[in-house]
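Weekly sync, protein design subgroup
Attendees: M.S., D.O., the rotation student, P.L. (late)

Item 1: inverse folding check
M.S. brought a backbone from last month's batch and wanted to see whether the design step gives back something sensible before we order anything. D.O. pointed out we never logged the input encoding, so this time it goes straight into the notes. Structure tokens as presented (172 positions):
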């Protein structure tokens, strides 16, 4: 069955946004590389430096892989590949988001005077958040059996996303 014109238009918009976002990410990387070398690479190794570098380079590599798939350069035309790629994308997005959350929590702790009580509150709130996130992700993986029905036409892994995924993303 051929995809509808609306589907193809939505796919085109998705590719445009993906290309634009990736281009801006690479542009930002190139603009700030000199400052990064000056202020980050020449400093001693700390947890903040490690988190920064994981966030910066992990996002650059992960987004590049995702962009290559969305451009049709990685797809093997198999449902198995698409399921594995969807799993990779989900894990990447969670790790990417969490690396940013951890940096923000570390900054908040430093701003509030590095008190042990504040650290305990931040840690327990974060653990609760991660448990809820893990629970919803597990529920999604065990109940959602996505079929990439347009794979033979589009040559990229495009599946339907249930509305509760967007609600969960907005809440987090």
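Designed sequence read out in the meeting:
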């Amino acid at each position: 069955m051929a995809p509808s014109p609306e589907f193809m238009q939505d796919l085109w918009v998705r590719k445009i946004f993906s290309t634009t976002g990736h281009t801006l990410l690479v542009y930002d990387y190139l603009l700030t590389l000199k400052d990064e070398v000056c202020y980050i690479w020449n400093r001693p190794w700390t947890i903040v430096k490690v988190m920064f570098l994981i966030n910066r380079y992990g996002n650059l590599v992960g987004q590049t892989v995702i962009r290559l798939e969305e451009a049709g350069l990685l797809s093997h035309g198999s449902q198995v590949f698409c399921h594995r790629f969807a799993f990779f994308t989900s894990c990447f997005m969670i790790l990417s988001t969490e690396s940013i959350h951890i940096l923000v929590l570390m900054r908040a702790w430093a701003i509030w005077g590095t008190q042990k009580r504040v650290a305990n509150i931040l840690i327990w709130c974060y653990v609760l958040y991660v448990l809820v996130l893990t629970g919803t992700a597990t529920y999604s993986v065990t109940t959602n059996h996505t079929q990439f029905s347009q794979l033979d036409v589009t040559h990229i892994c495009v599946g339907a996303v249930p509305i509760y995924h967007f609600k969960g993303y907005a809440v987090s």
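Discussion: The mean pLDDT is 83. The two ends are 37 Å apart (CA to CA).
Action: P.L. to compare against the previous round before Friday.
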